[in-house]
Amino acid sequence: MTETVLLVGGGGREHAIARAVADDGALYACASNRNPGIRRLADEFETIDETDAEAVADYATAVGADLAVIGPESALAAGVADALDEAGVYAFGPRAEEARLETDKAYQREFMDENAIPGCPDYAVFDDIEAACEYIDDYDGDLAVKPAGLTGGKGVKVIGDQVTAEEAKAYLRDSDYDRVVLEERLVGEEFTIQAFVANGEIRTTPAVQDHKRAYEGDEGPNTGGMGSYTATGHSLPFMAEGDYDAAVDVLEAVVDALPDYKGVLYGQFMLTAEGPKVVEFNARFGDPEAMNTLPVLETPFLDVLTAARDGSGLPELDFSGEATVCKYAVPDGYPTDPDAGAKIAVDEESVGDALLYYASVDERDDGIYTTTSRSFAVVGRGDSIAAAEAEAEEALAAAGDRVRIRHDIGKADLVERRIEHMAELRE
Ligand code: AMP
Ligand code: GLY
């Protein structure tokens, strides 16, 4: 029987999900932007605000969806999984209550504490901004300052890295945040592990390193992620034996504490001199990390989804073992002052063997237009990071001149710097 799958969301991550299910199931998709890549893969693409839980559930029912995959955290926070479950459509994505693991950073830390999840940094939660500023003054060491709610990865300020203590206090005082988390600054190299979770079971995927900073050399403000790479196998070049497994232990502890959790559980880790610590959890695939992971997953993603729904035991996962490099093209000025509404040219013919993923663009009758977020990504694959990087770079000939790219992602220099950084910390 052909399964009818509803995909919620219209970014690069969702284009990757669409590609992973389109060959095996009948795909319907809805998002607030018209993503040309998803639209072409789907039997039908409906423009619906993905945070309108009732509208999404009505659409799922109308198209006779057998199950749904929810891409963006905004939809999870809005209760889209709850509405779909109530409408009798299995949603691969946590209910709003469990998605608080991502959507409420104060809850996330308190949950870790209460359940003795390993890897939790020192932290404190404040509802009063002046009390938070006093804590900054009194704290012996650097802190990361985080609004408790969702900010698209752009709300965190790290003292001693991006800002001074004075700037962090000014940032808080100028903000309208009503709850903030202050936590020990973790020093090391970041990596992501995403896991498929359902019925108390967990299946993990290769570690990915994302690049949050806007400009080459890790300069500039934080973004949603400018690009990312994986190595051959499951680990990354700067990780030592045991680091991957230590991070997986953390994810397993989360699933033990949340036996009803379903969907993707994403762990963002800082590999410190003392091993992996948790920067945050997300309740969905990473964007761009989904674009590194799904193209090398050889087990049909639909098999994972149906096993999750049917409670029949998640399949063991097979991966191609290739390295991947993903590079995003973003509007000029992103993230602070993005040139939204610019018409961009994407020359699909020049992508070659690489994969092209459309992201937060809007397809209109006369072409493709930028929005305020990332526009499209290319992913190269190969038997080394260098080979994957070269394939991604060649494909970037597809990008016209109105977008910006971090060309350094996946290049030998940058990967080497990560290895040296970790070696210095571990001396
Ligand atoms: P988040 O929105 O929690 O992913 O944070 C965005 C980025 O801020 C992370 O990817 C890290 O680079 C940085 N960050 C967050 N928390 C910490 C921390 N405790 N120590 C150092 N950096 C952090
Ligand atoms: N790449 C970071 C995120 O998806 O939150």
TrEMBL record:
GO biological process terms, semicolon-separated: 'de novo' IMP biosynthetic process; purine nucleobase biosynthetic process
Extent of the signal sequence: none
Cofactor section: Mn(2+); Mg(2+)
GO molecular function, one term: ATP binding
E.C. no: 6.3.4.13
InterPro entries: ATP-grasp, ATP_grasp_subdomain_1, PreATP-grasp_dom_sf, PRibGlycinamid_synth_ATP-grasp, PRibGlycinamide_synth, PRibGlycinamide_synth_C-dom, PRibGlycinamide_synth_C_sf, PRibGlycinamide_synth_CS
Class in the EC hierarchy, top level: ligase
Keywords, alphabetical: ATP-binding, Ligase, Magnesium, Manganese, Nucleotide-binding, Purine biosynthesis
The keyword Membrane is assigned to this record: no
UniProt domain ATP-grasp: residue ranges: 109-310
Catalytic activity: 5-phospho-beta-D-ribosylamine + glycine + ATP = N(1)-(5-phospho-beta-D-ribosyl)glycinamide + ADP + phosphate + H(+)
Protein family per UniProt: Belongs to the GARS family.
Protein name according to UniProt: Phosphoribosylamine--glycine ligase
Species for this entry: Halorubrum saccharovorum
